From TrEMBL, chain A:
InterPro entries the record matches: Spore_Ger (IPR004995), UPF0353/GerABKA_families (IPR050768)
Domain of life: Bacteria
Transmembrane segments: 320-342, 414-434, 446-471
Organism of this sequence: Paenibacillus helianthi
Pfam families documented for this protein: GerA
Matches recorded under PANTHER family: LEUCINE ZIPPER PROTEIN 4, SPORE GERMINATION PROTEIN
Keywords: Membrane, Transmembrane, Transmembrane helix
Family statement: Belongs to the GerABKA family.
Ranges in coiled-coil conformation: none
Keyword Heme carried by entry: no
Protein name per its UniProtKB record: Spore gernimation protein KA
Length: 542, 407
């Protein structure tokens, strides 16, 4: 029953709305009227007299019926004012010098060939294209008597500058993060990978948002099958809007019913570049600094950009710490409940006595106590994200006092439980990617309930299905637990242990395409033995 | 689909029935740290020493204050025709579920030990909540009297007793530390014998130990101590050995971990102490013309030379050899003392029976009819090799130093 319900919810809704939209599409696809005046009035009507929609027709006549030979229209906030004034200046010059007969054709050709001071000029010939061009930051030049118009890309306007990533920071490494503007983001990736093999395939998704979604990969390194599969999935998306990459992730992920993320999101250009070099594919979405990376495996969620910049020994150690934290964050509260309510014989005597002493006078059973504390923590955490930044310290004081000291002093919870819950919470923050951390947060509650009813047996009854589920998961056709299951020895160098750079000669070959070699072999550092000092040179001063 | 659901429900209910459904919170447990058995078959008195957790950890949350003056344990007794009946009747006076998994020590009263411990062993093996790894002590009297005594500075007397046994085994090896399982193995083997440490109350006014106020004093007029080795034959206790005899048994059973040997010359002018670091004793019964002879081969490494007033020059190999000889003599006499006790009791504490049975089962069939007599007639052949490894950098003794100054 539950399954049927979920299916019905998840099924794409079938109805007439699609057909209606299609007919609308066709209506909009009408050609441009040769009369400039009528075209301009249609445009004005369609764009609803918005104050930011501007038409400049060079006639000097307030009557809309009397127009000049051409008009230029744009939306104020989306274009660069400097470029616009350059454009207008050249237009004015051009119209002054043209003969009055056969004006329109000559004008168009001349403008296209030499005059316009812009890089990207497109000829468009339907009203719909005009709308699109105007709304994506083009100035559209409509010429009287012609059935086509010119779209000049002078996009600009207010953008956030490139700043340090807020959710994925590093101590050592590049400090720039993606912004909301997709062209900036493309530039950031281009600057890291200056190769013609780096491809950007653009898609427009969203009926109303018309969001640019770009699939990025390196030809030769990425598996083309994966690229095609992702493109195919993107093309099937038919929705109103894509406001964030999370929309895309939910539309195209392999398994609909899973708490685990099967795509990784990153706001770091270096992470994306590194993934592309591993043969992964990135999806950039306009309007969000978070790019998607696919296909990913479970272990990708425990690798950070900094792992590759720090020395390999400490990186490997930190990865082990992260995996342990993952397990702690998933299992610690449930293990504590199971041990203290079912398997007291497994706790060393003195520890048991200490724990029992703390529980003396606590009114709730351990399960309820743990659930209360975990829920309180989740509430405080959510409050911490939502509240205005100015009252942040207030929340932390209340949180620390409420969960910590006061609850223990009031005898509502035991001190040990507070330690368990706080350690679990801190461990959760160690997981580098937030999407994986949230998966753990949800599963933790299920495991706690199982542990509270069945003890260690219940934990096993919860962990085994989770493991089975992980084994069945796929990310764009790649097994989630790769390369441990199925086991591939050749892919082991960059997992729990990060091998030194000179040892990683090949890419993880199950994600990548034909070009598997990363670098030349024999790059083991030889040390200072081969430094030959010229004896004529004076010795450096000691 | 429907069948799958039914199977899933059955599986889940199966989980519930698998015996894990016995959830119990920690503050509903009466964690016992020591158990005592008194009486005999048909009339048992069982004593439990239950931990009071808040009194254990000072400054823990919830109830607070005055933790120092409170005794950390409380003792309950219950009677019954059988052990489990006594346990069941203990719920009449104890509000908590008795929990035996953390019991440190099992004290068997003298009367119970002398009349037979079969029933005690049986309950320990039959019930999963009681562990066979619990250490055993025989009380020189009634077990109950030992369980209500405190052992400063430890807060939990049961734990303290088990620590005493452990430390004694590790540091001096006078007495073995025997668990219920080892005891059961010993008395059910061919030798049918086992030695269990015995505990006594030393001094006067032992009732002062029953109050937490002993923690406020610097010394007590009485205390508990291990006083001997109770010897079991089958399920009954038949005698007691003293410390020297017990040490001899420790040598013979290769249970010496670390011990100190003291040498004293006849005129008491020359005193030395050695620390045995490592000892390997091999006991083999060898078939003779009439009787078996016990061949004892001991390889002893004396680690440190602890103290001495010897006048020998310790730089010379000869004098080291002399000291080694002395140590050998002492060890031989210790082994002999143990062996004499065995022969006197005619009880095979060394486990020779097992060895003969394994080596020549035919002989064992013949010997086992009159095994006690056989033990009494057995000869012993002791060979001790001592290796004094580290005489130390401190060469001459002070006695020698001062003497040479006089010259």
């Amino acid at each position: 029953m539950l399954k049927d319900w979920i299916k019905s919810v998840l099924k794409p809704a079938k109805g007439s709305s699609q057909d209606v939209e299609k007919s609308k599409h066709q209506a909009l696809n009408e050609p441009i009227n040769t009369s400039l005046a009528s075209t301009l009035s249609t445009l004005k009507k369609r764009l609803g007299q918005s104050p930011d929609f501007t038409i400049r027709d060079f006639s000097g006549d307030p009557d809309p019926e009397h127009t000049g030979p051409l008009a230029i229209c744009y939306i104020e906030g989306l274009i660069d004012p400097g470029l616009l004034s350059d454009l207008i200046e050249s237009l004015v010059k051009e119209t002054a010098h043209t003969p009055s007969n056969r004006l329109e054709e000559y004008l168009a050709a001349s403008l296209l060939k030499k005059t316009l001071p812009a890089g990207n000029i497109q000829i468009i010939d339907s009203l719909n294209q005009i709308y699109q061009a105007v709304l994506t930051g083009n100035a559209v030049i409509v010429i009287d008597g012609l059935q086509s118009a010119l779209a000049v890309s002078i996009a600009g306007g207010v953008r956030r500058a490139v700043e340090e990533p807020t959710s994925q920071g590093v101590v050592r490494g590049p400090k720039e993060g993606f912004t909301e503007d997709i062209s900036t983001n493309i530039t950031l990736i281009r600057r890291k990978l200056r190769t013609p093999d780096l491809k950007f395939d653009s898609h427009i998704i969203g009926q109303y948002s018309q969001t640019t979604v770009i699939v990025t990969y390196i030809e030769g390194i990425a598996d083309l099958g994966v690229v095609q599969e992702i493109t195919k999935r993107l093309q099937t998306i038919d929705t109103d809007s894509i406001l964030e990459s999370g929309y895309i992730e939910e539309f195209i992920q392999d398994a609909a019913l899973t708490p685990f993320p099967t795509m990784l999101n990153s706001e770091r250009p270096d992470t994306v570049a590194g993934s592309l070099l591993d043969g992964q594919v990135a999806i950039l979405v306009d309007g969000t600094p978070f790019a998607l990376i696919a296909p990913v495996t479970f272990y990708n969620f425990f690798q950070t950009a900094e792992d590759y910049y720090q020395r390999y020994d400490i990186s490997s150690f930190l990865r082990v710490i992260r995996l342990i934290s993952f397990l702690v964050s998933l299992l610690l509260p449930s293990l504590f409940i199971a041990l203290t309510t079912f398997h007291q014989e497994m706790i060393p005597t003195i520890l048991l006595v200490t724990l029992a002493a703390q529980r003396e006078g606590v009114p709730f059973p351990a399960l309820l106590e743990a659930l209360l504390m975990e829920l309180t923590f989740e509430v405080i955490r959510e409050a911490g994200v939502r509240m205005p930044r100015a009252i942040g310290p207030a929340i932390s004081i209340v949180g620390a006092l409420v969960i910590g000291q006061a609850a223990v002093e009031a005898g509502l919870v035991s001190g040990a439980m507070v330690i368990v819950v706080s350690f679990t919470a801190i461990s959760n923050f160690v997981i580098p990617y937030f999407s994986m951390a949230t998966a753990v947060r949800l599963l933790r509650f299920i495991l706690m309930l199982l542990a509270g009813t069945l003890g260690l047996f219940g934990i096993m009854a919860g962990v085994v299905p989770i493991l089975a589920h992980l084994l069945s998961l796929k990310s764009v056709g790649i097994d989630y637990l790769l390369p441990y299951s199925p086991f591939y020895k050749s892919n082991m160098k960059d997992l729990i242990i990060r091998a030194p750079w000179w040892a990683m000669k090949t890419r993880p070959n199950l994600k990548s395409g034909t070009n598997k070699k990363r670098q030349a072999s024999h790059q083991y550092p030889v040390g200072s033995n081969n430094i030959v000092r010229n004896s004529d040179e004076p010795e450096p001063h000691a | 689909m429907h069948r799958c659901r039914v199977i899933a429900i059955l599986l889940v209910t199966g989980l519930m029935l698998a015996g894990c459904g016995n959830r119990i919170e920690m503050n509903e447990l009466g964690i016992t740290t020591a158990t005592g058995f008194d009486g005999h078959q048909g009339d048992w008195t069982i004593t439990y020493q239950v931990i009071i957790p808040p009194a254990m950890s000072s400054g823990a949350g919830g109830s607070s204050g005055g933790a120092g003056s409170q005794a950390a344990v409380h003792t309950f007794s219950a009677h019954g025709k059988t052990i489990r009946e006594a346990l069941a009747s203990s719920s009449r006076e104890n509000p908590r579920k008795l929990y035996f998994a953390h019991t440190n020590i099992l004290i068997i009263g003298k009367e119970a030990a002398e009349t037979g411990i079969e029933e005690i062993l049986d309950t320990y093996y039959r019930n999963p909540d009681a562990r066979e790894t619990v250490k055993v002590l025989i009380a020189n009297g009634v077990a109950r009297d030992y369980l209500n005594k405190l052992i400063p500075p430890e807060k939990l007397p049961g734990r303290a007793l088990s620590k005493i046994l452990e430390k004694n085994k590790q540091l001096s090896s006078y007495y073995p530390s025997v668990s219920v399982h080892e005891l059961a193995l010993g008395i059910s083997s061919d030798s049918a014998a086992a030695g269990v440490p015995q505990i006594s109350i030393k001094g006067t006014d032992s009732s002062s130990l029953e109050s937490a106020s002993v923690f406020q004093k610097t010394s007590t007029s009485s205390n508990l101590e291990i006083s001997g080795l109770s010897v079991f034959h089958k399920a009954k206790m038949v005698g007691t050995l003293d410390q020297n005899e017990s040490l001899g048994i420790s040598w013979l059973t290769n249970h010496i971990h670390l011990t100190t040997i003291s040498y004293n010359s006849k005129d008491a002018t020359d005193v030395s102490a050695f620390l045995v670091r490592n000892a390997k004793v091999k006991v083999t019964p060898v078939k003779g013309a009439l009787h078996y002879t016990l061949k004892v081969k001991a390889k002893v490494v004396v680690g440190e030379f602890l103290e001495t007033t010897t006048h020998e020059d310790l730089l010379k190999t000869q004098s080291i050899g002399k000291l080694e000889q002395r140590a050998e003599e002492i060890i031989r006499s210790q082994i002999l003392e143990g062996w004499k006790a065995v022969q006197h009791l005619k009880i095979d504490l060394v486990g020779i029976g097992n060895k003969i049975h394994r080596k020549s089962p035919k002989d064992w069939k013949r010997l086992k009819k009159d095994w006690p007599g056989e033990i009494a007639n057995m000869d012993i052949d002791i060979d001790v090799k001592v290796n004094l490894k580290r005489p130390g950098l401190f060469q001459s003794s002070f006695s020698r130093l001062l003497q040479s100054d006089e010259d």
